[in-house]
Amino acid sequence: MLDEFARIRLWTGERQRSALLRQQGVVLGIGDDAAVVEMPPDAAGGAAQWLLAVDTMVETVHFNDATMGEADVGWKALAANVSDIAAMGGVPRHALVSVSVPKKWEPARIGRLYDGLYACADQYGVAIVGGDTTSSPAHLVVAVTVTGTVEAGAAISRAGAAPGDAVFVTGPVGMSGAGLHWLLAAAMRGAGHPVPLAAAEADGTAVLVAAHRRPVPSVRAARMLAARGTLTSLNDVSDGLASEAWEIAEASGVSIVLRESQLPYSGSMTAYAHRSGADPLEWMLYGGEDYVLLGTIRQEDADAAKAALAAEGLPMYIIGEAAAGDAGVALIRDRQAGGGAGRREAIAKRGYNHFNG
């Protein structure tokens, strides 16, 4: 039977290239009481600030055996933190991983979880430098802390939006919520645990399932936009577009006005919503876990910024504007002609919340 330290060596031993560790300033990584890191070489010549973020994923709260495989859990646990660093305009650097393991999770399953963690880390150049491993009485808990860096004074907060700014997102929203909806329905039909990707491919929902299981944080897009000097606020879409828009509105003291006709409706999401009798707008506003970025940018630079990202193969959708007035979020229903077209609706301050039942 493997003890704690043998398991740690099994799950983390020699997982990352020494070149990546040196690039991120790692002097001493996994294997001691604490990691030792230096400010990464590309930031050492100028003033920089550290960014720190932490996220926790709990079995039965954030995932279960039907919705996600072990490697998916690992990927998403790190990706959520990478997205937080991107939402500040920064570069992710290091990660600490804490895993609380129940007896039902044998070592091989945790090994697959680390496969996903390290795959995400390699994708975004993150050095995993330490963490903690404990037992858990019932459910798996994965907590990840990520450090990042940003040029001194250049971090983008939620509080800078001003009337007249354009509101944008860096990718489709609602796809993760649609993917979760399909996964839960497939599990109820007895598709398996976890529901195999082949079943989603056969049903035309593979892109939705991938959006839920393997989100892709917008690090490059955030860095490009921040470098323009016209970005005024930024937030990542973890709890739903409505919730994140409310956070920017309240932090900045503006009204956020979204236009339904400009929202990025995914064709696969819309098709699945039609088949399942669901409203795709519900997933877009309140689904969450898309991990794209929502932000505001000076109106005069919005089109040029969108073109610059498009030239790099990166999406950017202008979906509304910030306006003077009480903090809040509204939606202009202008997607379809007919009675009520163009009406303005207040958007509820809701999304995923751990303490709302």
Structure explained in plain terms:
This protein has 357 residues and is of the alpha+beta class. It is built from 13 helices and 13 strands. The strands form three sheets. It has a seven-stranded mixed beta sheet. Helix 5 links the parallel strand 4 and strand 5 (127-135). The model has no long low-confidence stretch (mean pLDDT 89).
Q: What is the fold-level CATH name, i.e. the topology of the largest domain?
A: Phosphoribosyl-aminoimidazole Synthetase, Chain A, domain 2
* Rg from Cα: 21 Å
The CATH top-level class label of the largest domain: Alpha Beta
CATH superfamily of the largest domain: PurM-like C-terminal domain
* Order of helical and strand elements: HHEEHEHEHEEEHHHHEHEHHEHEEE
Pfam family, one: AIRS_C
Domain PurM-like N-terminal: 31-150
Binding site for Mg(2+) 4: 33, 84
Domain PurM-like C-terminal: 163-328
